[in-house]
């Protein structure tokens, strides 16, 4: 009996320690260790390396910028919500659910997409006509990343094999399987990616040409590589960001330069970072959640050029995620905003998967919000697109997978 009691006590203590460790890892552990790069090891076809991480100051001083720390003051600078329009719009189905990789070519007003049924890519004109982009078939494509000029796309398959296909020249190039989060440069001439070797010492943030060659190591990647977001800024100066935890409600956001620059960082007033660059790349729109707002996502805007990182940070008082927004122009966004949000949804976004959205326009300078439309048929919006003249809005429904159109 004594041994049984002793065993139960030991099991209880181990359970307490395990729960405590889990809480630490989930909420307090620094996502990326501040480690100095090991001796460089080559990435496949790599040519150069740059040494230490750009976000570790060489002089040991802090380079974190935290402007507008007082959230109350920030809120008071933003005008209250202004509902100018109380329109109810009817959504019409444009494409059925068996499509993927939908993107709007704003220059032509055409929709580009992949049809899973026949493995082909199409262009749908504003008249509703579907035109083949190429006769070639691509079966079982899992992920699609379009180039900014809409002439090329990175196609990824379930086994993580990847190709770049040029819809103009009808040529394709194979990429390395261990290259992850491959994305195009703003001029569509280069790619950035995470090269994840089996050896932890051979993991790099890198760039290369669209033919898969001329690879250059930018920065060595330590642990928790999933926290690094590879996304080239429109001004070509920044190729990735990553968030590092400070405490329960704050993170540092670091910016990785194209040439290994040691840019300043800015403080994120929350967790669950999702971001989008403005069309000119001068600012960063992002969403985070924090405990004093019930851990519901909120939109923020901050300057993000190398010389202005962290300046003019404003809370926009809009409860949604940044990836549910589309830029109308450099100063105005159209966002799908859930009608209700439960506490803690920032940690578990799936809670809002069946919550209907309204469409708002937000001015990023004044903070003025306009209710553009309430959808007559409830929709939970996943992806949202707006055409160049801002007369039509396209979105995909998260639950039925269809593409819809709304006249604004």
Short description:
The chain has 408 residues and is mainly beta. It contains 2 helices and 30 strands. It folds into 2 domains: 1-30; 31-407, YVTN repeat-like/Quinoprotein amine dehydrogenase (Methylamine Dehydrogenase, Chain H, 7 Propeller).
Architecture blueprint of SSEs:
Layout: H1 2-27, E1 64-65, H2 71-77, E2 88-89, E3 92-95, E4 99-105, E5 110-115, E6 120-124, E7 130-132, E8 143-146, E9 152-156, E10 162-166, E11 171-175, E12 179-184, E13 190-196, E14 203-209, E15 216-220, E16 228-230, E17 238-247, E18 250-257, E19 265-268, E20 271-277, E21 283-289, E22 298-303, E23 314-315, E24 325-329, E25 332-338, E26 357-363, E27 369-375, E28 381-386, E29 392-397, E30 403-407
Parallel strand pairs: 1-19, 2-27
Antiparallel strand pairs: 3-30, 4-5, 5-6, 6-7, 8-9, 9-10, 10-11, 12-13, 13-14, 14-15, 16-17, 17-18, 18-19, 20-21, 21-22, 22-23, 24-25, 25-26, 26-27, 28-29, 29-30
Describe the fold and architecture.
The protein is mostly beta strands. It has two domains: 1-30; 31-407, YVTN repeat-like/Quinoprotein amine dehydrogenase (Methylamine Dehydrogenase, Chain H), CATH 2.130.10. The chain is 8% helix and 40% strand. The chain has helices spanning 2-27, 71-77; strands at 64-65, 88-89, 92-95, 99-105, 110-115, 120-124, 130-132, 143-146, 152-156, 162-166, 171-175, 179-184, 190-196, 203-209, 216-220, 228-230, 238-247, 250-257, 265-268, 271-277, 283-289, 298-303, 314-315, 325-329, 332-338, 357-363, 369-375, 381-386, 392-397, 403-407. The chain has a five-stranded mixed β-sheet, with no helix packed on it. It has a five-stranded mixed β-sheet with strand order 2-27-26-25-24, with no helix packed on it. A four-stranded antiparallel β-sheet has the order 3-30-29-28, with no helix packed on it. It is globular. The model is unreliable at 28-62 and 68-85 (pLDDT under 50).
């Amino acid at each position: 009996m004594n041994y049984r009691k002793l065993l139960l006590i030991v099991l209880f203590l181990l359970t307490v320690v395990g729960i405590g460790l889990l809480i630490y890892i989930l909420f307090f552990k620094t996502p990326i260790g501040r480690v100095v790069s090991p001796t460089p090891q080559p990435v496949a076809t790599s040519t150069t390396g740059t040494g230490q991480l750009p976000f570790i100051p060489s002089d040991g001083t802090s380079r974190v910028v935290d402007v507008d720390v007082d959230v109350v003051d920030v809120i008071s600078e933003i005008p209250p919500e202004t509902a100018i329009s109380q329109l109810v719009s009817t959504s019409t189905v444009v494409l059925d659910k068996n499509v993927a990789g939908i993107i709007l070519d704003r220059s032509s007003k055409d929709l580009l997409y992949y049809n899973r049924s026949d493995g082909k890519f199409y262009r749908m004109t504003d008249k509703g006509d579907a035109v083949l982009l190429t006769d070639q078939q691509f079966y079982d494509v899992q992920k699609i990343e379009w180039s900014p000029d809409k002439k090329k796309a990175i196609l990824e398959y379930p086994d993580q094999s990847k190709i770049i296909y040029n819809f103009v020249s009808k040529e394709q190039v194979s990429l390395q399987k261990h290259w992850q989060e491959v994305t195009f440069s703003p001029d569509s001439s280069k790619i950035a990616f995470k090269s994840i070797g089996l050896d932890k010492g051979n993991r790099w943030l890198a760039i290369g040409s669209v033919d898969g060659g001329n690879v250059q190591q930018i920065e060595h990647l330590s642990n928790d590589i999933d926290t690094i977001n590879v996304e080239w800024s429109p001004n070509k100066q920044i190729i990735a960001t990553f968030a590092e935890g400070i405490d329960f409600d704050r993170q540092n956001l670091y910016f990785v330069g194209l040439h290994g620059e040691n840019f300043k960082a800015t403080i994120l007033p929350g967790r669950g970072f999702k971001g989008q660059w403005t069309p000119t790349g001068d600012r960063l729109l992002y969403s985070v959640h924090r405990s004093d707002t019930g851990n519901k996502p909120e939109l923020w805007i901050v300057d993000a050029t190398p010389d202005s990182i962290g300046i003019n940070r404003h809370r926009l008082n809009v409860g949604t995620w940044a990836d549910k927004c589309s830029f109308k122009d450099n100063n105005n966004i159209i966002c799908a905003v859930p009608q209700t949000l439960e506490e803690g949804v920032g940690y578990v976004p799936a809670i809002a998967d069946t919550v209907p959205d309204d469409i708002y326009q937000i001015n990023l300078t004044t903070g003025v919000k306009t209710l553009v439309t309430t959808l007559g048929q409830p929709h939970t919006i996943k992806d949202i697109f707006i055409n160049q003249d801002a007369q039509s809005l396209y979105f995909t429904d998260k639950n039925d997978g269809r593409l819809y159109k709304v006249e604004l």
